Amino acid sequence: MNQTDGERKGLSRRTFLKAGLTGGLLVAVGGRWLPLSQALAQAQAEYALIIDLNKCVGCRACELACQQRNGLPEGKSFIHILPKGEGEDRWFLPVQCQHCRDAPCEHVCPTRATYHHESGVVLINDKTCVGCKYCAVACPYNARTFNEETGIVDKCWLCLDWVLGGGQPACVQACVLGARTFGRRDDPEIAALLQRAKPLHPEFGTEPGVLHYIFPGD
Amino acid sequence: MTEHYWGWLVAIYLFLGGMGAGSFLVAAIVELTGERYKHKYCPTTLVGAGVSGPLILIGTVLLIFDLGAGLREPWRILFMFTHFSSVMTWGIWILTIFLPICFLYALIEIMHVHPGLLAWLRKRLRFLPETLPYRRIKRVVCSIGCVFAIGTAVYTGVLLSVVRAIPFWHTPILPILFLVSAVSTGMGLTIDLSATLAVPTVQRRFKYLPVIHIAFIGLEAILLGALLLTSMSQGGEAAESAWWILTGPGSLLFWVIIGGFGLLYPLMVHSYALARHSHGYISGILSGAGIVIAGLFVRFLIVAAAVPVAV
Lengths: 218, 311
Prior knowledge:
The complex is a heterodimer of chains A (218) and B (311). With 218 residues, chain A is an alpha+beta fold.
């Protein structure tokens, strides 16, 4: 019936249908957006990966888990275990991308392929990397490797797909001795550990963002 | 040495970029000071203008082969123009502007020396005039080109010196050394080698030339020495790099090829030339060759000797 049947009060059918469709659309879209906004909120959280070096025995489970997760060839991983000290004072230092706040790799990359994600994680855009390896040269932690097959530079990306879904990086899951703890910075357990943890080689001036270490004896 | 991401390809590029820029600079200065017009035939400007473009172009092409994904998908190289905080982006911009200038200079210089070229071109491009104001064109091209030539030589050094992770490279001495070396290799190529080969009787063509040569060779030696001494006094990884060059695997290259053949011998040749107002044919060629080869190996050693900070 037309709007011109002016005597009737209340909503016309057309208006009701318009309102209904619009409202329905909003609910549908909003509903889809709700989990995404949750994910975004989570993404904006800063993460911390704390490695307790008093517990690390150098078993390399994290190294191998990373290798498997990323389909890397034999002998290659985004994590390196560095043996330190001698004899009784032997200890092990697992090194991977520190996701630095002032990352030299990001500064030197000519294509902006290396960039900071909202979560604070440093990622590499595999569509724009040209494989010039300037970032690999510039990284003081030697955290990057050049992949001959793909022709791009790769490194620890914190298994961000799992993390954003509420999970944990492969290396954290793999550590049987519980030397690795991962979570949001505002998590009380993480915050407590961060009191004791320190960044690795702060004198490099890169401000490691995600990785923190509890050094032997601390 | 730990895993090296940059090898001999990068060293060759640094060398060709430097020598190309240096050749342009030498030719441009000879042109702009009017020295070129005091002689009937000036191989320096012809060679300098002619080779600078091809040298840099070859270096750049070699560098593209050093890329990974950028080689298979060349359009990715366009992204390299975007990140202005990266020295590599500065470099690609400088080269993009400088290369056409080099080829333009080459064209104008060749046309000036061989007017038949313009006549030949006129047959195909009728809008070209009968003659061109060569000196005026070159004044503009050379002046602008000099800025970019210096930029090219300096940026290759800055590319390395901003890397804090390699203490041996992280010094302002490096860009200055690369600039001096670029000019020196440019002179070696366009004056020593070209003039000796092109001019039958080698006379002292330019009164102050041996002095300038000696000055640049001496300056390069001083800067190299400063680089090594400051690295040694710094200790740590920088000192490791310095010792690798001075007493380690790099020592033969350093003392014999660079020190002896590349610095001391040319110094002797030009000191003789200063005193006796000429130098021989063989010594001219060897001196030029020594300077050029030393330029290559200086860059090679600096790249190869890199020791990253210990984690």
